[in-house]
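Contributing: when you submit paired examples, paste them exactly as shown. First protein:
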Amino acid sequence: MNLRAIAGGGKAVGTGTADATDAPDTADTESGVAPDRTVRVATTAATGALLAAGALHVVWVFSPWPLKSWGDFAATLVGVDESQRPSGPETLAVAGVLGTAAGLVLTGSRPTSNRWAGSWPVRAGMWTVAGVLGARGLGGFAVSGLSLGDAPAVFRHWDLRLYSPICVTLGGLTGYVALRTRRRRRAA
């Protein structure tokens, strides 16, 4: 029950007897209801972070920034020896995938303004992004937390404190947007 309902003696004021929890809080492509504020915030955060990560990968094609050398870059950010560092085209491909993921989240979050938003490729893409990021994050916690593999200690440190938490958070945000903007089936 909401505050307006309490003030109205138990009945929702201005909405008949419906409880506020019965009101649609997601984007319904058939009724034209816009996404609620939490969906907009989650979309903005996920899209912005995915685009920023993609841009950072473009920078990494040309520079080891923010580190001083490619050796430090390989050990700290990738967890490998410099000779095993991903090539420029591989890094650029990751940037493209991150940009595509951002586009899927943004497109899927706007079902009332975009005919593609409710399509199965966009919905499946959003769930795939959520699953891959969640798996990367949880896998990173397990592998780095249990010191599995032979990754350098500096990589495990940052994987536990930054890389894995970011992946889990972005996967969660994407999953939240996908769940809250799904098409609702009408009751028969």
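Second protein:
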Amino acid sequence: MKKARRVFSALLKHWKITAPIGVATVGAAVTAIILTTSSEPAAVAYANVSRNFRVCMLTTTKDTADASRVWPAIQAATAHAPINAERVTAPAGTDTQLVPYVNSLIALRCGLIIGAGHDLTAPLTSAAKSHATQHFITLDKPDGPANVAAMPAQPADLTAAVLAAANTASPAH
């Protein structure tokens, strides 16, 4: 304690020298802090996903078991290609009631529409007849339109089908 008093009294005795040194030291510290911190915010990294291929899965409220099996396979494809995966759940209804949901996915420019439910086969087939360039996958392969494919039995095969559709899609999607 005596030593600290001696040092402090020496500093007070020679205040004309120690005061400018103290001010310079504090000024240097403040300058270093200002120079090392950036006043500009960090650049925001973003990805423009508007041009990604869009895969839409349509399901109904009564098809949760099928949807739970299909959705992970679709999501797996998004890890390998620029794909936007969307999941739409419609209320259970008749074929006529479900067609507007299919049409809304076509209007959203879904490159591939996947019906995860047996009750969606007829509405998807109906839409496929009037939209020949639109691609569909259903649980049950209907007779008729070539743009409707049957759901692969294995999830890895569905993932491969989604990737194939994304790779062959036109850049307009």
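If you have annotations for the second protein, write them as plain sentences, like these:
The chain has a mean pLDDT of 84.
DSSP finds six helices and five strands in the chain.
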